[in-house]
Specification:
By secondary structure, the protein is α/β, with parallel strands linked by helices. The protein is 43% helix and 14% strand. Helix 6 packs antiparallel against helix 7.
Length: 500
C-alpha cells in the first residue's frame, strides 16, 4: 500500500509544471508489478486506491490553499479536505485496479492492454460521475509537448491517456519468465508507437496553416489581486480603477476586445449604470469589454438568485451579451444537498450560485462568435461548445488566486490547452493572478502573462481550423471504438481458449 501511494505521488511529476514524463516508464511498470502481486479483486482495488491516493494528494495539494485564504474560519479544514478529496477520487483508480485483477489473468503484453483500458475507463468515469472532475488525467503529461498533443484532435485527451498507459506500462513485461523475444517485441513496438505518434504530431504542426483573425486585437488584463483582498468592500473601487488603468495603457495598435478575469468587476453591472459608463468611456471606439462579474436577479424578485457570469459591455455602457456559468464548483459556489451538510461555502456570501443552461455560443459586436468558459468549465473534454452552433474561439475567464503560487494554475492552463487541439479552436485565457494566455488551435501558446504578475498582453486572435476536428464531430464515440478494438483480440483469445 505504501509503495503504491509513493508511486502515485511520483507520477504527478509527469504533469505540469514539471513535465517529467520520464517517470512514467518507471511508475507504471511498478504499478503493474504491484497489481500482479495481489490475489483478488479486493487486493487489486486496494492497490489501485493507494496509488490514486498518492497521485491525487500530491497532485491536488494546492486545493488546501483555498481554505487558507480565510484561515481564521476554515483554515483547519485545509489538510482534511485535500485528503478526503484524494481518497474519494482514488476510488476510480481502485476501480481500475479491480478491473485489472479480474481481467488480466494471462500475463504478457495482454495484461498491459487490460490496464490501459481499465485506467481509461476509470478516468472517463471520474470525468462524468457526480458532475465529474477530470483533473490531472494522465494524458495531460504531454501538455508541454505540442507534437504529442495532436492525436487529441481525433481521440481526445482520454485517448491520449490510453496510449500513454499502454506505451509506458509495457516495460513491465521485461521481468516476465518468457523468452527474450517475447519480452522485447512488445516493448520495441511500444517505443515505435511512441515515435510514430510524435512524428505524426510534428508533421501536423509543420504543415499547419496558421493565420490570425483580421481586425481583432485582444488585450488580456491580469490585475494580480490577492484573493484575501479581492472582496473587501473598502478596496472595491481601487480594484476597479486598477483594471481600468491597465486596460487604457497606450499601445501601437488599440485593442478591439478587452478581457478581464472571472468576477473581475466588484459591482453588479445591471444595477450600476455609472460603472457601465466608466467602462464605456475607457474603451476605444468600437471596442468591447468581456468581463467576469457576479450577476443578481432584479430587486424585489423572489427568490433572490445570483449567477457567476461573463458580461459584454460596449462603448455606450450597454450590456450586449451575458453567459451564466453552468458547471458550478461544489462547496465553492454551492453546497450540494444543503439540507444535509451544515457547512458554508468557501466564497463570499451565503447564497448558492444558480447554474446557467450550459455551453452556448455568444455573439457580440466586434468579435467572432465565441464559447465562454468560466473557471474550471474548460477542463471537461467534449463539453466546451454548443454542438449545434460552433464558435470561432473559446474564452476561459478564471480566478486561480485562491491557490496562490502553486502547481494548480499551471495544471489548469495545461488542461485547457488540450481543448484547443480537441476542438480545432483557439482559446484565450484570462486569470486574475495568472496564468493568462492566448493559445492557437494546435495547443501552442502565442502570448502569456506569467503566474503572480500584474500586467497586460496585447495579441492577435488566432483563427480556428477550417473544419471541425474528428473529436469535435464524434466526441468520445471515437474513444469507445479504440477501446473496443483493443479489447476485441483479448475477448477472442479468451473465447478460443475456453472453447478448446
Amino acid at each position: 500500500m505504501v509503495a503504491a501511494a509513493v508511486l502515485g505521488a511520483v507520477a504527478t511529476l509527469a504533469l505540469s509544471p514539471f513535465h517529467w514524463v520520464v517517470v512514467l516508464p518507471v511508475v507504471l511498470p511498478g504499478l503493474v508489478w504491484l497489481l500482479d502481486g495481489t490475489r483478488s479483486a479486493r487486493g487489486g482495488f486496494a492497490t489501485g486506491w493507494a496509488f490514486g491516493l498518492g497521485y491525487f494528494a500530491a497532485g491536488l495539494y494546492w486545493i488546501g490553499n483555498a481554505f487558507l485564504v480565510y484561515a481564521d474560519t476554515v483554515g483547519w479544514a485545509a489538510a482534511p479536505a485535500v485528503l478526503l478529496l484524494a481518497a474519494g477520487l482514488a476510488i476510480f483508480a481502485g476501480l481500475a485496479g479491480t478491473l485489472y485483477r479480474i481481467a488480466a489473468n494471462n500475463g504478457g503484453a495482454e495484461r498491459i492492454v487490460v490496464l490501459a483500458i481499465a485506467w481509461t475507463v476509470a478516468e472517463w468515469l471520474r470525468g462524468h460521475v457526480l458532475t465529474g472532475f477530470p483533473w490531472n488525467l494522465i494524458g495531460y503529461a504531454w501538455s508541454d509537448t505540442p507534437a504529442m498533443m495532436q492525436p487529441a484532435a481525433v481521440t481526445g485527451v482520454y485517448g491520449i491517456s490510453f496510449l500513454t498507459v499502454l506505451i509506458f506500462a509495457m516495460p513491465a513485461i521485461l521481468t516476465d519468465d518468457v523468452s527474450a523475444r517475447s519480452r522485447w517485441r512488445p516493448v520495441i513496438a511500444a517505443a515505435a508507437g511512441l515515435c510514430l505518434l510524435w512524428a505524426g504530431g510534428a508533421i501536423r504542426l509543420a504543415t499547419a496553416e496558421t493565420t490570425d483573425v483580421p481586425d481583432v486585437r485582444l488585450r488580456l488584463v491580469q490585475p494580480n489581486i490577492p484573493q484575501v483582498a479581492k472582496w473587501r468592500p473598502d478596496l472595491a473601487e481601487s480594484h476597479f480603477a486598477k483594471q481600468i488603468a491597465l486596460s487604457t495603457q497606450s499601445a501601437p495598435q488599440a485593442p478591439t476586445v478587452v478581457i478581464w478575469a472571472e468576477s473581475a468587476v466588484p459591482f453588479l453591472l445591471e444595477r450600476e449604470p455609472q460603472v457601465r459608463e466608466r467602462i464605456g468611456a475607457m474603451l476605444p471606439d468600437g471596442a468591447i469589454l468581456l468581463t467576469g462579474a457576479t450577476r443578481a436577479s432584479p430587486r424585489g424578485e423572489e427568490p433572490f438568485r445570483v449567477w457567476n457570469s461573463l458580461e459584454a459591455v460596449d462603448t455606450d455602457g450597454r450590456i450586449v451579451g451575458v453567459y451564466d456559468k453552468a458547471h458550478l464548483v461544489p462547496f465553492g459556489e454551492y453546497v450540494p444537498m444543503r439540507d444535509l451538510f451544515a457547512v458554508a461555502k468557501l466564497t463570499v456570501g451565503d447564497t448558492d450560485f444558480t447554474a446557467g443552461p450550459g455551453p452556448r455560443t455568444l455573439r457580440v459586436p466586434g468579435t467572432p462568435p465565441f464559447s465562454p468558459l468560466i473557471c474550471y468549465e474548460g477542463i471537461f473534454p467534449g463539453a466546451v461548445t454548443d454542438p449545434a452552433n460552433r464558435p470561432a474561439w473559446l474564452l476561459n475567464v478564471t480566478n486561480d488566486g485562491w491557490y496562490g503560487i502553486s502547481t494548480g494554475p499551471h495544471q489548469h492552463l495545461a488542461q485547457v490547452r488540450f481543448r484547443t487541439v480537441e476542438e480545432g479552436l483557439p482559446l484565450v485565457r484570462v486569470a486574475n493572478t495568472g496564468i493568462s494566455a492566448v493559445i492557437d488551435s494546435y495547443g501552442r501558446v502565442t502570448a502569456e502573462i506569467p503566474l503572480g504578475a500584474e500586467g497586460i498582453a496585447d495579441a492577435d486572435l488566432p483563427a480556428a481550423s477550417s473544419e471541425p476536428t474528428p473529436y469535435a464531430r464524434f466526441g468520445d464515440g471515437i474513444l469507445l471504438g479504440i477501446l473496443a478494438v483493443a479489447a476485441l483480440p483479448i475477448g477472442v483469445s479468451r473465447f478460443a481458449r475456453r472453447a478448446s
